[in-house]
Design a protein that fits this description.
CATH architecture of the largest domain: Up-down Bundle
Radius of gyration: 33 Å
CATH topology of the largest domain: ABC transporter transmembrane region fold
Strand order of the largest sheet: 4-3-6-7
Distance between the termini: 41 Å
Largest sheet: 4 strands, antiparallel
Strand content: 5-15%
Number of helices: 19
Structural class: alpha/beta
Helix content: 55-70%
CATH class of the largest domain: Mainly Alpha
Shape: elongated
Number of domains: 2
CATH superfamily of the largest domain: ABC transporter type 1, transmembrane domain
Number of strands: 14
């Protein structure tokens, strides 16, 4: 079987390095400002630690010159004690900086994850249809993880490196201006080389992250459909596709590592050149008597101190490049906009009807469509064409039709999961109707409930699965909602009642030494999962309910309970069954 080559996705044109750098600076301003007091504390510790490190070689030189000039042992012991105290202080400050930096990085990174996830949840379903969960997890978590060091340790190290570099050059210039000038030239050449390499390496790092996201997305997709893959005899094809994704990821990773090695080699050459300059020029100065032994040792010590931040700049340049790549990809996600954004920003619907607030009342809501046409983004034919109907408040409508006739799309239009291409959809009571597109999404979710054929159950308690993680709902309300849909006996059989945890498959969790320590026992059938979804509707008090093929996968016994639940649901709500 021939396996098609996996090609890299097209990227937006433009300077990826510059765009990533701008994004990185914007992220630093946005997510470090709330922690500015901690940043100020870390900056103070960094300046103090840098000052001590820069002054330490001067103490060494003073001890050597003092010994050669015959100074008293008391003076030498005093200088040595200061040196030891400085070394201890540097270590203590370093541990404190590392802790504060790691903590700050975690706090800021979690804020980024929360904001990106919150934004993605506002996007249209077409976005999630074209991006697998594995891809999204890698993009949200993987790309964000690259920023962790940037917010804490990496920024701290860069700042300290710059301070030490500046201090060493000043101290070197006070001892030997010629050596200081040579060091500056070497550093400028190394910086220019690294800058050029970073500009060319940034697209390579972005390509590596994209290849990693695609690989994880493919693996997640194949794991989710492993039974169908085996049953359909597509194992070889799946293996071939996995090999293609792995090859692309390996090539992208190899190119990224090669560019990282270029940065490390540049720094190594620069450090070697600086040491050579100190030994050659310093040696001549020592022979000519223009440089004391203590000053020569101090110069060597300063270059050794300089070596650590300069070598770290190579690693930091790699991490900054990776952070810029992650920031650029996150910026692409945050730039996506939902077609519902204009209506999400609209004001709340506020007008009176039957003596109460229409939007916040409890009366059933009707739905009306006038010449509605909708075509999916990649569809050749409209899924819904020139549809006109009205379902009055309190009505019950069953929609039937062959597969692909647009039944599910109808429910999505009412829930505004997709936006109308042409025509008008109105919602309201008999005497007061409003355009559905003008209703804010938060308000719409309270008024309209959709129960899909595939019910989502979460790795959480029964209570959280029914309330959708709302801590304000009392347990009595949860138990009442489950009882109204016929799940009271099932709830009574659970060991911890509404606190019993469910697996995503619907079963109780039991510890069996598996990954994570828990597995489902299959306690909820597909039909009972539908009933649990109806309990969410009872609890949320939606006034218009759309059920997408609720009886498609249930047994006759559960069907009786489902019918009873629908009867109770329709007493004070408008119901559409697809």
């Amino acid at each position: 079987m021939q396996v098609p080559e996996v090609s890299a996705p097209a990227h937006r044109s433009g300077n990826a390095s510059a765009r990533g750098s701008e994004t990185v600076s914007g992220l630093l301003r946005t997510y470090l400002w709330p922690f500015r007091k901690r940043v100020f504390m870390m900056a103070s510790l960094v300046m103090l630690s840098s000052a001590i490190q820069v002054l330490m070689p001067r103490l060494i030189g003073a001890v050597i010159d003092g010994a050669s000039l015959g100074r008293s042992l008391g003076d030498l012991y005093f200088l040595a004690a200061i040196f030891v105290a400085g070394g201890v202080a540097v270590q203590v400050l370093g541990v404190t900086e590392a802790y504060l930096g790691a903590d700050l990085g975690q706090l800021a990174t979690n804020s980024v994850r929360a904001d990106v996830t919150r934004h993605l949840l506002t996007l249209d379903r077409e976005f999630f249809a074209s991006n697998s969960p594995g891809t999204l997890i890698e993009r949200v978590d993987g790309d964000t993880a690259l920023l962790s060091g940037l917010f804490g340790r990496l920024t701290l190290e860069v700042a300290q490196g710059v301070l030490i570099l500046s201090g060493v050059l000043v101290m070197t210039a006070s001892t030997s201006p010629l050596i200081a000038a040579i060091l500056v030239v070497i550093l400028l050449l190394a910086w220019g080389t690294l800058r050029a390499g970073h500009s060319r390496g940034s697209p390579i790092r972005i390509a590596r992250q994209a290849a990693s996201a695609d690989l994880f997305g493919f693996i997640e997709e194949r794991i989710a459909g492993i039974d169908d893959t085996r049953a359909g005899g597509a194992v070889k094809y799946a293996q071939g596709r996995l090999e293609a994704y792995l090859n692309r990821w390996f090539r992208a990773t190899f190119r990224s590592v090669a560019w990282n090695g270029f940065a490390g080699a540049t720094i190594t050459i620069a450090v070697g050149a600086m040491l050579a300059a100190v030994f050659v020029i310093g040696g001549f100065g020592l022979v000519n008597g223009t440089l004391s032994p203590g000053n020569l040792i101090a110069l060597v010590a300063w270059v050794d101190i300089l070596r650590r931040p300069v070598e770290a700049f190579g690693r930091q340049a790699q991490e900054l490049g990776q952070a810029a790549a992650g920031a650029s990809r996150l910026a692409e996600l945050l730039a996506l906009r939902s077609s519902r954004e204009s209506s999400t920003n609209s004001t709340n619907v506020q007008f009176e009807d039957h003596g109460g607030n229409w939007a916040e009342g409890s009366a059933p809501l009707g739905i009306s469509m006038e010449n509605v046409t909708f075509t999916y983004e990649n569809g050749e034919q409209p899924a819904v064409s020139n549809l006109t109907f009205e379902l009055p408040p309190g009505g019950f409508l069953a929609v039937v039709g062959h597969t692909g006739s647009g039944k599910t799309t109808l429910g999505r239009l009412i829930a505004r999961e997709v936006e109308t291409g042409r025509g008008i959809i109105k919602i309201g009571s008999r005497d007061a109707w409003v355009d559905l597109a003008t209703v804010p999404e938060v308000q719409l979710r309270r008024m309209v409930a959709v129960v899909n054929q595939d019910v989502a159950l979460f790795h959480a308690s029964v209570r959280d699965n029914v309330t959708m993680f709302d801590p304000e709902v009392p347990d009595a309300a949860v138990m009442s909602a489950l009882d109204r849909v016929g799940l009271g006996p099932w709830l009574a059989s659970l060991p911890d009642g509404v606190a019993t945890h469910l697996s995503p498959a619907g079963g109780r969790e039991q510890s069996h030494g598996r990954i994570g320590g828990r597995v489902g026992t299959g306690g909820l059938s597909a039909g009972e999962s539908q009933l649990l979804a109806l309990a969410r509707v009872f609890l949320g008090n939606a006034r218009l309910v759309v059920l997408d093929e609720p009886a498609a996968r249930i047994d006759p016994v559960t069907e009786v309970r489902l019918v009873d639940a629908l009867d109770a649901l329709a007493r004070d709500r408008t119901v559409m069954v697809i």
